[in-house]
Amino acid sequence: GRLTARTSWKEFAKRVADEPAYAAINGNVGGSRPRELFEDVVDELGDTLSADAVAVTAALGDHVDAALEASVEAVSSMLTAAGGRAAGVSAANLGIILGDMRAAKQEKAERAIRKARRAADDFAAMLRSKPLPVGASWEAVRPEIAREPAFGALTDETLRKQLNEAHAAALVASGAEPGE
User: Fold this and answer.
1) Residue 135's pLDDT band (boundaries 50, 70, 90)?
2) Reduced to 3 states, what is the DSSP secondary structure of residue 86?
3) Among 79, 88, 93, 120, which is least packed, fewest CB within 10 Å?
C-alpha cells in the first residue's frame, strides 16, 4: 500500500531512504539500481490499474454517476456485491480510478460551459455585425438570423432572445433611432 501506480520516485525515495533494504540495494555495484526496480514495479502497477479501470467501468455500468458521488468504501461494496473481476480491485486502485473518473467528469462539464459561453459570445457578435432594425421584436429579427451558424450553435432559445434584447437595448442606448 506504500506504492501505487501514481507514486513518484521522489516521493517514494524520501519514504524509504532510511530503510536497511533500500541501503542494501543502493549499495549494490552489480544488478539493478533502486530507481530501476521502482520503475519496473510502477509499470506493473500501471498495467494492473488499467485493467482494473476497465473492469470497474464495466461493472458500474449505468451506476457510474452514483459511484462518483459515493466514497471508495461504498463503491467497493457495490463492486463486491456485483461480483466479477472488479470485486477484487484494491482500495488504492479504486481510489485512483474514481479520482480519474471524477476529474474526467469535471473536465467534460468545464468544456461544455466553455462551449456554451463561446456560442453565446459568437451569437452576440453576430447580432452586432448584422444591420438589424432597432426596436424590432425578437419574432421579427429571428427569421433574418436563423440561417447564421452562430444561431445554430446557440441552442438555448431563451438565451438567444435575451442576447437579442440586450443588443437592442444597447443600440437604443447608443442613440440609434428605431427602424435604422
Assistant:
1) confident
2) helix
3) 88
Record the cell numbers describing residue 25, joined without a space: 540495494
Q: Quickly tell me which residue has 533502486 as its cell.
A: 34
pLDDT of residue 41: 96
C-alpha cell at 119: 456560442
CA distance 159 to 144: 17
The DSSP symbol for 8 reads -
Q: Is 80 left (phi over 0), alpha (psi -120 to 50) or beta?
A: alpha
Beta strands in 97-146 (DSSP E): none
Reported pTM: 0.74
- 53: its cell numbers: 479501470
Rounded Cα–Cα distance for residues 161 and 141 (Å): 10
